[in-house]
Design brief:
The complex is a heterodimer of chains A (287) and B (282).
Chain A lengths: L1 H14 L3 E5 L8 H6 L4 E3 L4 H12 L4 E7 L8 H9 L5 E6 L17 H5 L6 E3 L4 H13 L4 E4 L21 E4 L5 E5 L4 H6 L6 E3 L2 E3 L6 H5 L4 E9 L4 H9 L8 E6 L10 H7 L5
Parallel strand pairs in A: 1-2, 1-3, 3-4, 4-6, 5-6, 8-9, 8-11, 11-12
Antiparallel strand pairs in A: 5-10, 7-9
Chain B lengths: L13 H19 L4 H18 L14 E4 L5 H10 L39 H15 L5 E6 L6 H12 L5 E7 L8 H4 L5 H8 L2 E6 L3 H8 L10 E6 L22 H17 L1
Parallel strand pairs in B: 1-2, 2-3, 3-5, 4-5
Helix pairs in contact in B: 1-2, 1-3, 1-9, 2-3, 2-8, 4-5
Classes of the chains: A alpha/beta (287), B alpha/beta (282).
């Protein structure tokens, strides 16, 4: 995903001279392509995420669309107030990019696990969360974010994720994207890198992905949920404050509310050191 | 096509402007029963020099692309800015009467929704990183406007300010001015008793900034330092402005309690009499 991200960003930046990338001293062997092509729009802010984010907001207020880039919690929780006040409140075009969504950095431990990031980001009223499920959704999300500049969060896995789409899908906030056809009205809906787990657990059921969502996109959900008898959500994030919770809140008080069954990571994974696939299994996302 | 107004520094009598800022600030906090009058009086002279002389801004074009950008990082002192914006024509003076009222544009921390205000603050340690981003944008595009950030002293406890201080020096942002309102009083006690900043001058020099100290109530000295070009090529500018919290009202000066208290109508009259009297004698 991160390779699809940097390739796509570099391509987009050729056409749009206001795209800038600021990294928090991370991105070795990823960001060089962008840095080499656009040295005047690439900044390494150093190990200083609060300044990185405030700086990004300042540049965004002068016409740049700034992408801040770091691992997991560093560009999110470390600078949560800068995202809340400087970026989201001012509705500035800053896209916070985190690599290592979920437990992608398994053995690096809890400091590097992003399992509460949706909870943080979806509490921001103007924030669009982009959580692509494969490299093609990554490209689709990035194009949408650049065409619709505003406060946004792009959550990537690492590298080498499989492709689940044949071509770049159409994406829009709140709009479910079909991934696998299947029989019946019992469906799976994933966000982010949990798409692989959804496909593995499908057993012939239809699989959908929701790579773009936001507070504002809740309004579209009751209608989409109501078309199905059961919607099982999947995410590599804790249940509390996550994607399943978001969807449940979105349909609360409607007849569709009883249809939703969230599958998320158990908080057990927060105390464990293991590879991503092991943590996803122990956490209950995969079988 | 509509002609863009020429952007130039104001030509106000800064002493008279400072007096009117103080008077409006006192009226606003009294009416709204709001806090932070001491913090606003502390910066009234700096703000008067900025809006009256030093900043290239125009009320006719508050978003003019070549304007200087001013950011109040100590957002709690916003009444001084709202007053300056009203006195220099950015907003209607009658708007000040709504300060802090339900539904008012003028909330009790500076708001970017007010014409002429660039950035909402209220949480400390946000103005300098944001201003650094603006200064960086100007540098990258070869534009000649400046960014001026006004911080408190207590907010230098925030690590984000020191991150920005490293960044601005590393990138040679000599189009960035940071003013510290060094009144030496924080929320509970003095800066020295809370989290010592001294030696401040040499700290910033060591960080790679051009540093100057000034009496933050001396209009001539402030004007000289805040007008014009970089002090040292390739270095961001740090102006340590020695100020008195509550300046201009004898019973508020250097008193922690006036970080919070709002004046009674009697105390407002006494304060206004002092300020108006002081100007008459100047």
């Amino acid at each position: 995903m991160r390779n699809a991200f940097i390739e796509e960003l570099t391509t987009l930046a050729e056409a749009r001279d206001n795209i800038a990338l600021i990294v928090g001293d991370l991105g070795y062997s990823v960001i060089e392509e962008f840095a080499d092509c656009f040295p005047d729009r690439f900044i390494n802010a150093g190990v200083a995420e609060q300044n990185m984010t405030g700086l990004a907001a300042g540049m965004a207020s002068e016409g740049y669309h700034v992408f801040t880039y770091s691992i997991a919690n560093f560009p999110t929780f470390r600078c949560a107030e800068q995202i809340r006040n400087d970026v989201d409140h001012h509705r500035l075009p800053v896209t916070v990019v985190a690599v290592g969504g979920g437990v992608a950095y398994g053995a690096l431990g809890y400091s590097h696990h992003a399992v509460q990031d949706y909870a943080l980001m979806r509490a921001m009223p103007n924030m669009v969360i982009a959580a692509p499920g494969d490299p093609l959704e990554t490209r689709a999300c990035l194009r949408w974010l650049v065409d619709n500049p505003g406060p946004s969060y792009l959550r990537l896995g690492k590298a080498g994720e499989p492709r689940f789409h044949d071509s770049i899908p159409d994406v829009a906030p709140g709009q479910w994207v079909p991934v696998r056809e299947g029989g019946g009205d019992d469906i799976l809906l994933s966000t982010g890198a949990a798409l692989g787990a959804a496909i593995a657990r499908a057993e012939g059921r239809p699989v959908w992905s929701l790579p773009l969502w936001s507070m504002a996109a809740k309004i579209q959900q009751p209608g989409q949920v109501a078309r199905h008898a059961r919607v099982t959500t999947l995410e590599d994030h804790l249940a509390d404050g996550g994607f399943g919770s978001w969807l449940t809140e979105a349909v609360a008080g409607t007849p569709a509310a009883a249809c939703i069954q969230p599958i998320a990571l158990s908080s057990e994974v927060c105390d464990m050191v293991a590879g991503q696939s092991t943590l996803n299994r122990i956490g209950g996302l995969t079988l | 096509m509509k002609e863009t107004p020429i952007i130039a520094a104001g030509l106000h009598d800064t002493r008279s402007l400072a007096q009117r800022i103080r008077g409006q600030a006192l009226r606003m906090v009294t009416r709204a029963k709001a806090s932070h009058i001491g913090s606003a009086l502390s910066i009234a002279d700096i703000v008067a020099v900025l809006y009256g002389r030093a900043l290239r801004v125009s009320p006719a074009a508050p978003r003019h692309p070549e304007r200087d950008r001013f950011i109040l990082s100590k957002g709690h002192a916003c009444v001084a800015i709202y007053a300056a914006l009203a006195e220099t024509g950015f907003i209607d003076g009658s708007l000040l009467e709504t300060y802090g009222a339900d539904g008012s544009m003028l909330m009790a921390h500076i708001s970017h929704k007010v014409p002429g205000a660039e950035f909402s603050t209220g949480a400390l340690g946000h103005g300098l990183p944001f201003g650094t981003g603006k200064a960086m944008a100007a540098k990258l595009r070869g534009e000649s406007w400046r960014t001026v950030v006004l911080t408190s002293d207590g907010e230098w406890g925030e690590g984000s300010n020191w991150e920005a201080a490293l960044f601005a020096a590393h990138h040679g942002l000599d189009n960035l001015v940071c003013i510290i309102d060094y009144n030496k009083l924080q929320s509970l006690k003095s800066v020295d008793e809370t989290l010592r900043l001294e030696p401040l001058h040499s700290k910033f020099e060591a960080f790679g900034w051009a540093v100057r100290e000034v009496d933050g109530h001396d209009h001539e000295a402030l004007t000289k330092l805040l007008e014009g070009s970089p002090w040292e090529a390739g270095k961001p500018m740090m102006l340590i402005a020695h100020t008195i919290k509550g300046k201009g009202v004898s019973f508020m000066e250097n008193k922690v309690e006036w970080h919070y208290r709002n004046p009674t109508p009697e105390l407002l009259d006494a304060a206004l009499a002092e300020i108006e009297g002081a100007c008459g004698n100047a």
